[in-house]
Amino acid sequence: MARSKTSKKWLDEHVNDPYVKKAQVDGYRSRASYKLIEINDKDKLYGPGSVVVDLGSAPGGWSQIVAPVVGDKGKVVASDILPMDGIMGVTFIQGDFTEEAVYDEIVNALEGRQVDTVISDMAPNLSGVKNTDQYAAMYLVELALDMARNVLKPGGSFCAKVFQGVGYEEYVKDVRQSFNKVLVRKPDASRPRSREVYLVGKGFKG
């Protein structure tokens, strides 16, 4: 089947992307690793000993950089619908965290420890229908925020990928209800034409 012009353009862009090439050289599973590295450099979301929940973790680009930083005294619990190859120091739970059984499994894996940081790089499977995709994306980040509210300790942090569009402004207001400080980040590794930004919530009100 012939590739559409759009998918060919994406493929060409992806292959020539400096962050894709850099990830291959640095041994990272995803170019997304650089987004979190930059955000954490600015916002100090996690450090040695932190307990972190990574939602939408596959292929593991974020967990891979968090685990060595939090170290043996920290904990990383990652989850995704898709499979993910194992990472030392990361507990991975495959399944749809919108289902109660999977959600409970994530909570149980925390072994009673309160969470310092919830990170989410989740995105829905895109249908190509702009509004449908936007609603699906907003649904996921709303659920990520719900989980953060349930597991974060007071003063904890939250970082989620959000697509600007319908529901975005309301979502930002919702995040502000729960955090003392809310920042919008557009890391260098985000493609300029992408509508994605990262919302960072600092100082969970509990």
TrEMBL record:
CDD domains linked to this entry: AdoMet_MTases
Any one annotated GO CC term: cytoplasm
Presence of keyword Cytoplasm: yes
GO molecular function: rRNA (uridine-2'-O-)-methyltransferase activity
Keywords noted in UniProt: Cytoplasm, Methyltransferase, rRNA processing, S-adenosyl-L-methionine, Transferase
Localization per record: Cytoplasm
Binding annotation for S-adenosyl-L-methionine: G60, W62, D80, D96, D121
Annotated catalysed reactions: uridine(2552) in 23S rRNA + S-adenosyl-L-methionine = 2'-O-methyluridine(2552) in 23S rRNA + S-adenosyl-L-homocysteine + H(+)
Active site (UniProt): K161
Superkingdom of origin: Bacteria
Annotated ranges, domain Ribosomal RNA methyltransferase FtsJ: 28-204
Pfam hit, one: FtsJ
Subcellular location, principal: cytoplasm
Record-listed E.C. numbers: 2.1.1.166
Task of the protein: Specifically methylates the uridine in position 2552 of 23S rRNA at the 2'-O position of the ribose in the fully assembled 50S ribosomal subunit.
Family to which the UniProt record says this protein belongs: Belongs to the class I-like SAM-binding methyltransferase superfamily. RNA methyltransferase RlmE family.
Name of the featured protein: Ribosomal RNA large subunit methyltransferase E
